[in-house]
Amino acid sequence: MTRETLLQARNLKVCRGGAQVLEVPSLDLRAGEVLALMGPNGAGKSSLLLALAGLLPPTSGELRFRGASLQSWGEREAFRRRMTMVFQDPLLFDATVAQNIASGLKLRGVPVQERTPQVNDWAERLGLGELLDRSAHHLSGGEAQRTALARAFILQPEILFLDEPFSALDPQTREGLMEDLGRILAETGTTTVISTHDQGEAARLAHRLAVLQEGRIVQLGGLREVMNHPDDPFVATFVGMETLLKGQVVTCREGLISVRLRKGASSREVLALGEAEPGRTVLVGVRPEHVALSLQTDNSSSARNVFPGSVTKVIPRGPFFKIELDCGFFLTAYITAQSLSDLDLQPGRPVVASFKATSVHLIRKEGLAAEL
Amino acid sequence: MDLIWEGLRKALELLVRLDPEVLGITLLSLKVSGIATLLSVVLGLGIAVVVALNEFPGKRLVIALLNTGMGLPPVVVGLFVTVFLWRNGPLGFLGILYTPAAIILAQAVIATPIIAGLGLAALQHLPPGLRLQILALGATRPQLVWLLLREARLPLLAAVMAGFGGVISEVGASIMVGGNLKGSTRVLTTATVMETSRGHFEIAFALSFILLVLAFGVNALLTHLQQRSRPR
User: Inter-axis angle of helices B59-69 and B20-53, to 10 degrees?
Assistant: First the structure.
């Protein structure tokens, strides 16, 4: 699917206090997509978001919106009327909810009789119908962020920038708001750039994912692609590929790669799909949600990788449990509360872990052998 | 105690009788300090906005100077304004020494740093991301400034009250640059000083009482403005 490029960044560099905080050689934002910027604190997510929004003039480089340059204040001011941004802090005005939602339209000189129906509509869509006359300073965190979103969506922005919009909310509020945001984004098809450090948020909302580290984009691609096929160990850890094991390719026949894990004396072999030259050092990555646990070896299973081991730790993780295993190497799996009680899992219990060859991702970045 | 009651009684009597001299002095005080405050609001808030919204070398020094200016002794201001307006002074050609205009000028010099300093603090106290949020909502530069001032309206009006309170009650500069000339530059504070020194305590009390009522009235009005626009 080829879509129009809305925003184009080239050789973008941002310096703060003499230090370079951002360097992005190239980034295109396509119409209708939701792009998530992920990275730990200080990776440059917010700087990139602000730079893309024209709110942080880059030290060097070029930004184009629908092909037109955004160099001068005037050009950026015109652009700012076609996009908008919601921050982690809702930053509402000292006014009522209705006045807040209407504020962007008011700045554009939209007459009050045209504003009111739109305000009511967006308040309704974000569940604020009852709160229109309430002072913005008397809202809960979730209500305040909903007001900020209504104030943004009412402008029908061509690009919506969201800077960690859920970070300050409690899990339950976050859940409801994410649900509504996902629905509205699907309904409106608003092109969106969202920064987050939460892979769950990215997985829920984004089509494409850019992972940032120290001011650079280390990987950019489709959501599934980045989640399942990270290019390097940093990205892998960050997108939740919790098991990462050093190994060496032993054989590669008919699209089936055998990797010997370099872990102590036990020479376990993991099977993966694809092509790789024997002798090459790789990192074997497995997402915890792709690992199945059972009490005995299940012969009917199609999983090619089967490892007996024992439970070392059971960690509650919200709606599910994370199980850490010792199979001669370290492995993690996610299971439901139901499975936990069915299998009666507790530290020391012997189990069989299995995962498909298709679930195994090999990281074979150049220079990996030296890094490890 | 008698002296105080007598003063209050005399003050009421002067007010009720609408004594032309007292009325004239009161109106002049209000006019002079009102205009001076207005000038200071324009200048002071202008300075506050420029300093708050821009990064420039020496910004801290400017802020420190403004904050020092908030405590300018009126007699020092009076001295400098007198020298400037003196016949041979740099502004001597204006010929406004010993006129109400001179008092307005001196009072504006006193109130401007107060309003600028408190106004700057009010603007800097706004959430750091608010400026970007307002720009992201599509505001032009004037709209940005207006919305920031609006968001800071409570402390800004407090700054205006502080400025007005500073000049309506100030006596040193007014007497130095105005001369306390009867019917021309005699304001409530200078008249009070004069009547007290003459031993006319009742009249001095009456004038002080009017001054207090005036200060209260203006601040009550500003407080009303300040609290009115706040949504519940």
Answer: 160
pLDDT (tens digit, 0 to 9) for every residue of chain B, 232 residues total?
787 788 778 778 887 888 888 889 999 999 999 999 999 999 999 999 999 999 999 999 999 999 999 999 999 999 999 999 999 999 999 999 999 999 999 999 999 999 999 999 999 999 989 999 999 999 999 999 999 999 999 999 999 999 999 999 999 999 999 999 998 999 999 999 999 999 888 888 888 988 998 889 988 988 888 787 655 4
**Cβ of residue A57 closer than 8 Å to a chain B Cβ:** no
pLDDT in tens, A127-179: 999 999 999 999 999 999 999 999 999 999 999 999 999 988 998 899 999 99
Q: Which residue among A186, A206, A234 closes a domain?
A: A234
For A304, the domain range is 242-371
Q: In terms of residue numbers, what domain contains B44?
A: 7-228
Same-domain pairing of A169 and A210: yes
Q: Write out chain A residues lying below 8 Å of B133, CB-based.
A: 85, 87, 91
Q: Are residues A158 and A107 in the same domain?
A: yes
Q: Are residues A58 and A176 in the same domain?
A: yes
pLDDT of amino acid A190: 96
Name the more confident of B8 and A103.
A103
Count of the separate structural domains present in chain B: 1
Q: Which of B126, B121, B142, B120 is nearest to B47 (CA)?
A: B120
- Name residues 65-104 of chain A within 8 A of B (Cβ): 77, 80-81, 83-85, 87, 89, 91, 93-96, 99, 103-104
**Does any CB of chain B come closer than 8 Å to the CB of residue A198?**
no
Half-sphere exposure of B7 (CA within 13 A, CB side): 19
DSSP string covering A263-302: SSS---EEEEES---TT-EEEEEE-GGG-EEESS--TT--
Instruction: Tell me: do A88 and A202 sit in the same domain.
Output: yes
CATH, residue A262:
2.40.50.100
User: B136–A85: do the CB atoms touch at under 8 Å?
Assistant: yes
Q: Is A167 on the interface with B (CB under 8 A)?
A: no
Q: Report how far residue B203's alpha carbon sits from residue B198's, in angstroms, rounded to the nearest whole number.
A: 10
Looking at mean pLDDT, say which of A7-11, A40-44, B226-230 comes out highest: A7-11
Report CB contact under 8 Å: B132, A84: no
**Same domain, residue pair A216 and A298:** no
Residues in B closer than 8 angstroms to A50, CB to CB, are 132
CATH assignment at residue B98? 1.10.3720.10
ipTM score here?
0.86
